[in-house]
Every structure is written in C-alpha cells, then in structure tokens.
Amino acid sequence: MTIFVLVHGASHGSWCWDKVVPLLEMKGHEALAVDLPGNTYGEFDIPLGQVNLGSYTDHVCKVLDRIDEPVVLVGHSLGGLTITQSAEYRPDKIRSLVYVAALLFVNGMAMRPVSGHDPESIKAGLERDAWIVSDDLTYVTFLESSVKSRFYNDCSDDDFAWAKSMLVPQPTGPLIDPIQISSENYGRVPKVYIECEQDGALPLAYQRDMQANVPCDRTITMSTGHSPFLSAPVELVDHLVTI
Fold it and tell me: Which one, of 71, 62, 79, lies nearest residue 96 by Cα?
C-alpha cells in the first residue's frame, strides 16, 4: 500500500481530487487530498494578505508529520511549488514527488517574479490577461471567460460547471514568493512529471522547458488538458499507481 498526498493548484481545493481519491482507494492505497490555507472557506482563520508559499508549505509539512511512512506527494499546477518547497523541508517523508502539469522550478524562481515588495512592483509583477488583481493586491480572480480554455478544455459540461462553481480567489503571496531549495534536500527526492499535451494553462512546450531545467527520473505523457483529475481520472490513477 502507498499513501498519496494530493495538493491542489491555484484557486482550487481538495475537491478537485474527488474522482481520484476513491479510485486510488479501490486499488488498495490510501489517499489524502489537502486544502491549502486561503483556498477554502471556513477551515483556516487567516486573511488572504497573510497567505504565502510558507503558509502552504507549513500546512503540507504538518500533514506529512502526522503520517508514519514516506508518501507519494502529488502537486497540480501551482501545487508544484508547494510540493517542491515541502520536499526541501521533509525529504525523508517523501518517496516520490509527482508533478501533474505542475510548476517545476529551480532555486530562487517564483511564478510571478516581482522586482520589489512595494505596491507598484507587486502590481506590475502580477498583472496578467488571465486574471483580475484585487485593489489591495492580496488576491487574484481568474476571468470567467478564460477558465474553460485554460483549465477545463477537455472536461464534460457538467464537470466544467461544477469546477467553475468551486473556484475561489487565489492569494497572491504564493504567486510571488520564490522557492528556496538545495541539492542536499530537495535534490535527492525522486521526481516524476506527468505532462498534459492539450494543456491550456501550462503549454506542453513550457512543461518540457521546466523539465529540461529540473530533470525528472521519469516523464509520463497524457493527451489531456490541464485537469486530468476531472477529464481522465482513471488513466491518471493508473499512472499514479505505477509510481
């Protein structure tokens, strides 16, 4: 039996793994989908402006500390940064990292780099066609017109409608915080990348550029969009159990 810990991406929550968890359990494994601080209503009493990559990582590390054996730690999209930083702090708690169409960065990189922490620098770093930045710069909201093409281009209408209804504002801290990793810790954890050929959020060429910069032990290719946990959960689980 393997324990899988599943980490969601930007604006999502543990709900995005709802099809995956029972399929893993049917195959005799244990699966735990986490909600990250600031990305779910009611569970965490923390203002969005105080959420950063450290908030995400601290929460995942606490989850890992409650488990007696090393896990397969899976991250989707922005969740790639969370599992990367968690592996730096808890390398011995992780059997393998799995990046599902996820950000895979070298030390010091951020999703949206900023030149300084003054409001103008943060605003300039965050501005992007895909979302609207809040006036106080504490969160972004994805444009409704872009959600399907970016996240759910190969999902059923029902799955798309449900997922869109579940999206929440994304705190900006984890978007601008750079990861801090070392070869001694993060570098020794095995890594697998599951790339998605039809991805509208992270194009395949970008996924492969990231893998070129941070080589993985294995690459798996799926002919899906950005959210295979919704559009192809059976295939995704079949790949996960091989890891």
Answer: 71
